[in-house]
Amino acid sequence: MSGNRIRLLGLDIDGTLVNGRKEITQPVRKALRSAREAGISLAYVTGRPEAGLRCGCVPDPHINYGITSNGAIVWDCAKRQVIRKKCLNVGFSAALVEYCLNNDMIYNVFWGGYGYCDAQTFHQVMDLRKKPPSHYMKATRRPVRDIFAAIKSNQDEIENIWIHPPCVSEIETIKHQIISLDRSVQIVVTDGIHLEVGASGADKGEAFLALSEHLGYDRDETAAVGDDLNDMGLLRAAGLSIAMGNARMELTAICDAQVPDNEHDGVAEAIERYCLRESRPIYSL
Questions:
Q1: CATH top class, domain 8-85+203-275
Q2: This prediction's pTM
């Protein structure tokens, strides 16, 4: 980690930017505004689809870029333009959905910023947590009459496929089955149980580096904050890596610094302590 000035900051959303109530707190919003006023470009870097950036309390006018679906799409939020995309093959996507249906697994296929599935699976998704679905889920999930026809009509647009296995113990077996369909795909585990399958290159870290190059920034001028395993690539890619207080141990082990958790404005401290200083000394955990 160098002492270069930070010019690009990547922020995971769930578990990082927002608290447990899915809110960006006022101290965090104030810090985001200060970062933009200091000339720092801000980017959402999330597993959420693009529609997930526009629902609830997440939208913030100071965040001008979005990396969505775990790196499948890089957006210019202000212009609503795609800068980069890495999408799944249609044949593989259809085969994976068929595998899910044959093995009683809940799934969502993402394209165009939303998650789609057949009507029966849609009701399972909405009932997954045994309580009324959140505003986020209702805003980002949609049922279709024929999922295979819908996949075929969205060639070169499949961002990723989310899978909820019957139980945690089956995750490794399911991963091997997915890889047998296409060895080039990338699989990340989120929340300890969900599998998110993306195309080669659809990685938060690779997408973050692509955005940095697009903006003309060196790696040493970048920083990122995250908390879950799908943030590993992002944190390895950034010049300055910052783990939240609620981050998994695997992440804290590779990061340059750690801040309070998402219930105590950790992102605000990350910005104020590590990004708004002209010179950044090396901090130890």
A1: alpha beta
A2: 0.91
